[in-house]
Amino acid sequence: MTPVEQVLDRLDRVKRRGTGWIARCPAHEDRNPSLAIDERGDGAVLLHCHASCSVEAIVEAIGLKLRDLFPQ
Predict the structure, then answer these.
(1) What is the 3-state secondary structure (H, E, C) of the chain?
(2) What's the pLDDT at 72?
(3) How many Cβ atoms sit within 10 Å of the Cβ of residue 22?
(4) CB 19: neighbour CB atoms within 10 A?
(5) 62, 45, 63: which is closest to 5 by C-alpha?
(6) In DSSP terms, which residues pair with 38 in a beta bridge?
(7) pTM of the model
(8) 57, 65 in Cβ contact below 8 A?
(9) Among 6, 9, 31, 70, whose Cα sits 20 to 30 Å from the Cα of 45?
């Protein structure tokens, strides 16, 4: 499973948006999806919460580590 597949599999209300995805942020009470997910050309996952949650808080909330955002 690729890093982006691991992340997307653990999120709620995932929808395709442009070249990436949007989903509910697991690090805060998110009623409307505010988490942007993108995949770099090298397979690394980029996460951006529009409510300012840190990447560390997001990956912890879905049971992953920062290293899981990068291909082996």
Answers:
(1) CCHHHHHHHCCEEEEEECCEEEEECCCCCCCCCCEEEEECCCCCEEEEECCCCCHHHHHHHCCCCHHHHCCC
(2) 87
(3) 20
(4) 7
(5) 45
(6) 46
(7) 0.94
(8) no
(9) 31
